[in-house]
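debug: dumping io for the single-chain case to check the tokenizer round-trip. Nothing else runs in this session.
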Amino acid sequence: MTLSPQKASQQAKDMATQTILSLSGEGGGYRIEGRRTETNKGVHWSLRVHSSSVWDDDDLDNDEPTTSEPAPTRREPASAPWLSTLDQALACLNRAWPWLYVTEVHPEFGAAIWQRVQAAHQSRALPGGVLKRWQKHCHPDASTL
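debug: decoded output
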């Protein structure tokens, strides 16, 4: 069975790994990457976390575990486990991830990530410049908060 050029192009696009969220800081950083697949049931993303952070084992200001998800390790990308939701991927990050320097947000995840940043801001205020940087990456067309 031969695929039409249009279907083959879509299939190649679906299998390409894309950066969903990229964060950096003095102690390293995180990158969540994803693969998009489209079926008759809709769009589905598979996500995995890559870490170069020295903070994976620390919660910075809380000794209680905040998640049952395993922390990402410094391993080759191919061996990182694939996850099925953004929340699963974010749970693998240190809980202080909103305070890290955001360098990239995938457009399809901007609104969802912005919601989570705002929730973090509600529980512990982010400095104005940090919040504006998140807004710029999550909603690049918006001019104000």
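debug: round-trip ok. Residues 57-66 have pLDDT under 50 and may be disordered.
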